[in-house]
Design goal:
Elements (H helix, E strand, L loop, with lengths): L15 H14 L5 H13 L3 H6 L7 H15 L4 H5 L1 E4 L2 E4 L12 H11 L6 E5 L5 H9 L4 E6 L2 H13 L6 E5 L6 H4 L5 E6 L14 H4 L4 H4 L7 H9 L4 E10 L5 H10 L3 E8 L5 E8 L7
Parallel strand pairs: 3-4, 3-6, 4-5, 6-7
Antiparallel strand pairs: 1-2, 7-9, 8-9
Bound molecules: S-adenosylmethionine.
């Protein structure tokens, strides 16, 4: 099909500069916060040309096919689809992860879970670590890479999410190191882990309360999986269940690390202490100053009975 046939007017607009300006204009009109930056990234993806080189060579020609491909990606982004789904990747803890709409896009604050896990296990060469709600596998992969002799288990209730996690495990050469299970919270561990063998259970569970659902950005509410976000009426469903189930799988002195939403830390700490099984030993703040990760240590046998 010719450029005219595709609705592209004159050869003069087939330049990087014109394509960049057009993409930026469309994204700006759609209310995207950083239209120039995102336009450059979309061009980079299609043209394999860095944003710097796009600026240096605005007069370079692009083909009609490239023009159409960029336009299609811009239209998806203008429809508020997250840039990470459009490009198919997100960086986390220094690694690139494949992301699809089956998985939550990894957030930088979740790296606190990885850092604390590594800190707790650095002198325990045979540590057993369980990632509950693994999604893209970003936490399990980062932990397995940082703790080369640890046993790492990853669980998700979504088979579609686990398929993406497996792609990431293969991509980073860690598929032989991480055992994957599909099922509800810790239930699959009855096949994979004996009682009281876990050193760390870490989880970034769904924690959005029903009342907060409509306040989410369209990128999140309309595109990220509801299963990865919605935590029941008050957002606490998964914490309550994890706190009940985790003591059976943790060693005395083992830890349960839970990412929490803004304003949820105090309630999660209280619930953890109320089980009688846990001592909250820290609450980690993210870079925005929000209490983000509740760290609980399992007390000795019989403590909660
Ligand atoms: C907030 S996402 C976290 C994904 C990833 N760990 C991260 O930090 O980016 C929560 C994940 O928990 C999974 N999930 C939701 N309910 C679950 C359940 N009952 N049992 C196991 N996994 C569950 C979802 O499918 C989703 O992948």
């Amino acid at each position: 099909m010719s450029a005219q046939g595709l609705g592209i007017a004159a050869a003069s607009i087939h330049t990087i500069g014109a394509l960049l300006a057009d993409a930026e204009g469309n994204l700006k009109e759609a209310g995207i916060e950083q239209p120039a930056l995102e336009a450059a990234w979309l061009l980079e993806y299609v043209l394999e040309l860095s944003p710097l080189m796009q600026r240096v060579k605005p007069e370079c020609q692009v083909t009609a096919a490239e023009w159409v491909r960029v336009q299609a990606l811009v239209a998806r982004r203008a429809n508020r689809e997250p840039l990470q789904y459009v490009l198919g990747t997100q960086e986390f803890c220094g690694r690139e992860f494949r992301v699809t709409p089956a998985v939550l896009i990894p957030r930088p604050e979740s790296a606190l879970l990885v850092d604390e896990t590594v800190h707790r296990c650095k002198e325990n060469l045979a540590a057993t670590v369980v990632d509950v709600g693994t999604g893209s596998g970003c936490l399990a992969v980062s932990v397995a890479a940082a703790l080369p002799t640890a046993r790492v288990l990853a669980i998700d209730v979504s088979p579609e999410a686990l398929a993406v996690a497996r792609i990431n495990m293969v991509q980073h050469g860690l598929d032989g190191r991480i055992e994957c299970f599909c099922g509800d919270l810790l239930a699959p561990l009855s096949e994979g882990l004996s009682a009281n063998q876990g050193d760390v259970i870490l989880s970034n569970p769904p924690y959005i309360a029903e009342i907060d659902w409509m306040t989410l950005q369209p990128e999140v509410r309309c595109f990220e999986p509801r299963l990865a976000l919605a935590g029941g009426r008050d957002g606490m469903d998964l914490y309550r269940r994890l706190l009940q189930q985790a003591p059976a799988y943790l060693k005395p002195g083992g830890v349960l690390l839970m990412e929490v939403g803004a304003g949820q830390a105090a309630s999660v700490c209280r619930q953890a202490e109320e089980t009688g099984w846990f001592r909250v030993y820290d609450v980690l703040r993210d870079e925005g100053g929000i209490d983000r990760v509740v760290c609980c240590e399992r007390k000795g046998d019989g403590a909660g009975l």
